[in-house]
Amino acid sequence: MEPKPEQAAAQSEELPHVLVFPAPYHGHATPLFSLAAALATHGLHITILVLPCLPSLSAFMASASSRLLPISFLSLPAPAPAPAPHSPDLHTIIHSLSLLSDPIRRLILDLPSPPTALISDMFLGFTEPLARSFSIPRFTFYPSGAYATSIFHSIWLNNPPEPTTEPTGPIEPTSSSSTITISDVPSAPSFEFGQLSGLFVRYKRAERSIPLDPAWASVRDCWLWNIESHGRVLNTFADAEGEFLSHLGPVEQAGRVWAVGPLHMLAESGTEGEGLARAEEWLKGRAEGSVVYVCFGTMASFNQDQVGAMAMSFSYGSSSTERDRK
Prior knowledge:
Blueprint: H1 5-12, E1 17-21, H2 26-40, E2 45-50, H3 57-66, E3 71-75, H4 90-98, H5 101-109, E4 117-121, H6 127-133, E5 138-142, H7 146-158, E6 179-181, E7 190-192, H8 198-206, H9 214-227, E8 231-234, H10 238-248, E9 256-259, H11 272-284, H12 304-325
Parallel strand pairs: 1-2, 1-4, 2-3, 4-5, 5-8, 8-9
Antiparallel strand pairs: 6-7
């Protein structure tokens, strides 16, 4: 039998209390909402710090209320500039979010039940020293996989120099001079410098200026604080990325690592099993090597024409492969 609302409220005050702080982007907030709901069904009281621009919030609040989950919401002031989807100025957004530290501190001090932990998005690294000031552990939430996270950690921690394209002597540099090898990540992947995280590439450009722009300093600090967090929570699973999950734990001498994905499968209706069964049935009906898995960044967005063009290109590629086999 489901508890009554007043019973749920009373019970929530007795539960371990976890603060959850999503980043204001759909690909970041939605999976963290799913995680928050799952934690709330396993004996935790959740308080979500809410920004005015937080996507999918209304639907999640309605769902949490209808399910009588021990989830409450605290409103934060809007940062300036306000986050905009697909903004090329992500560094200024990260900086503006970091300026919310004092308002968040005041909200935490006013809570009737002190928090026992904080889970915050990877764009919110400034919450690491904030959590330490309250002597509570902070867990960094990564909405994407362990492979990318391993590379992000390496480049921000080691800060490799930007390869020069200028002659350094009598011999012109070859094209390989722009290659960066991430030697401390399993398999030591190599990339052209421009293929690295766009945020990091732009940071290296900004690093040429002295003093460093405060917004870019906030970005650098954000990632370094993420690396120092008590633990990492990733939207992935061990069968797919076990090697990189292991790397993010003991190899980096960091806190514990939790693989909690794919979080979109934590459906409320209980039909996630049916969806998984249908997906498995479909995959089993495909020939080996005939299925292409495509993954875009958490802030990617495409219109109908772009999706159609991608589908056509994959269709053409698969047809060409089939002809080659014959």
